[in-house]
Amino acid sequence: MALPRSLASSLFGTQSRLLSTVSRGNGSPVLLNESPFVRGYASESGEETFDVQVRDYVPHHIEGPGTTVTTTKSELMTYFETMYRMRRMEIAADMMYKAKFIRGFCHLYDGQEAVIVGLEAASDYKDSIITSYRDHCTYLGRGGTVFEVIAELMGRSEGATKGLGGSMHFYNKAHNFYGGCGIVGAQVPLGAGLGFAHHYRKDGSVAYTLYGDGAANQGQIFEAFNMAGLWNLPVIFICENNHYGMGTADWRGSKSSAYFTRGDYIPGLKIDGMDVLAVKHGVAYAKEHAVKNGPIVLEMDTYRYHGHSMSDPGSTYRTRDEISSMRTQRDPIEHVRKLLADVAGVEPSELKKVEKAVKKEVDEAVEKAKQGTIPEAEQLWKNIYHETLGATMRGMDSQTKIKL
Ligand SMILES: Cc1ncc(C[n+]2csc(CCOP(=O)(O)OP(=O)(O)O)c2C)c(N)n1
Ligand SMILES: [Mg+2]
Question: Are 130 and 208 in contact (CB under 8 A)?
Answer without folding.
Answer: yes
